[in-house]
Write a structure and sequence with these properties.
homodimer; 242 residues; alpha+beta; Jelly Rolls; Arc Repressor Mutant, subunit A; 2 domains; five-stranded mixed beta sheet; 9 helices; 13 strands; 25% strand; DNA-binding
Chain lengths: 242, 242
DNA sequence: CGTTGGTTTGAAAGGACTCAAGAGGGGTGG
DNA sequence: CCACCCCTCTTGAGTCCTTTCAAACCAACG
């Protein structure tokens, strides 16, 4: 598994204009006002990174935290025996790498599952701003909380029961209804296996089986279609198949 | 599974003297000074609760957060299909029920695995104190961070690989070396199964098998002994058995 | 075209689950 | 104090699901 690392020169898109950010309402700076923004001096970089690229690795000193704007990122925790698990799937609007706020090392590795667009925020900004802005502090606490809840419910739902059920819950979680039909992105089978604690062949088989049951259709490398969200939901809750 | 709920009248031990708390260094109020303490007016209750008692349930409005002083507590997340998982094992010094700080409902249920001793802190205290004490804010952020890291590494280590290996990692995590021999507490097999996503019979078999291999000894309902931490550690990392 | 990385599919082996019976411990009432 | 009950834990045998090892397939790319 070769893994590129970011080359900032190529990825750099300019400094962010956070004030005008399109996902600002869901991002870290949601509650900041003009005055708060005026206090930001260090540069917040706006990066685009291609799929399957490492952003940071576990144990590395945490200097930045990140907001994901577009795409998907996996957070990989590696165990003492060398095995690894995906402990969180970062979705647009989510913060990650918050260990930077604690002045610690990253407790997991982060890498891209798709092409992504993200903001990289130096920890110094938060430290200095945090002293003066209770609003930011509140927002940070909130984000930590969301991360924890996300992590725990992810953990509980994606890792309990038969794989087909777990996979169904996963698909419901990442699915996007664009108009009439719902589409769910897929990732490398290997990665999906790391999320649900099964081998990649098992993911492949589960997808095939669910397609046979009519729960999903149009399996391709990177996505599937969901003919009926209702059916899939029912399936994920009961596992009662035909 | 019958479950008592706290009866405060019986459990109440008096209001806490946080300033003199023995676990204060690791608890929420670690960094508060005299002045900060003087601002605390609402009562922080000091409770003792017996084993297998519910403290709060998922979805309940979060009015308090808790610090565990003694014993073990499980945080139970229940899925939409009714299945449930233990998402975190709370150990002495840990905070839980922090959803109260976000003004939300509890995202999981909490109940005792052993007799416990804990402090119950009304959310109002944090809200009012938080406005004025950046130290407390920093401490809260830190605690959130610890909870997240704990949750993720728990998730990754206790849920990856063969059960015997998972069980070994679990034991290492809860073991206490008192002098020469190390002892690890056990819980109801059912609960242990919910932590590692296996049936309770499987836990029972895994314990028996590990005893046969000499990795653990003196299996009883509530604890085991670990003859050699080294061996167990080696086992948990490689899974190479005899 | 041939190579390469990723995905699918097959068959056999292994681990966990289910159902079921039995053993151990603690508490209660006779 | 003993008998009995209930709850929990252990153990057994067969089934089901996931893994393992292999081989074939597919699409992208040089």
């Amino acid at each position: 598994m070769t893994m590129k690392t970011i080359e900032i020169k190529n990825a750099w898109q300019g400094n962010s204009d956070c004030n005008a950010c399109t996902i600002r309402s869901s991002a870290l700076f949601a509650e900041l006002n003009e005055e708060d923004f005026s206090k930001i001096h260090s540069p917040i970089d706006d990066l685009r990174i291609e799929a399957n690229t490492g952003i940071y690795s576990q144990g590395e000193s945490a200097e930045y935290l990140f907001t994901l704007r577009e795409g998907f990122i996996k957070l990989l925790h590696l165990n003492s025996d060398g095995s690894e698990r995906i402990v969180r799937l970062v979705m647009p609007g989510d913060l990650f790498g918050m260990e930077a706020l604690l002045g610690e090392a990253y407790s997991h590795a982060a890498s891209t599952l798709s092409n992504v667009h993200l903001c990289r925020i130096p920890k110094a900004i938060i430290a200095s701003l945090g002293e003066e802005s209770p609003r930011l502090h509140r927002q940070i606490v909130k984000k930590w909380g969301e991360a924890l809840v996300q992590s725990e419910s992810w953990f509980s739902e994606i890792n309990t029961g038969r794989i087909e059920v777990r996979l169904a819950r996963f698909l419901l979680r990442v699915a996007k209804s664009s108009g009439d039909i719902a589409v769910a992105p897929l990732f490398k089978r290997e990665d999906m296996g790391l999320m649900m604690d099964v081998k990649f062949e098992t993911i492949s088989r589960a997808l095939a089986s669910m397609a046979e049951q009519g729960l999903i259709s149009n399996i391709s490398r990177l996505s599937i279609q969901i003919p009926s969200m209702e059916n899939l939901k029912k399936f994920s809750q009961a596992g009662l198949n035909a």
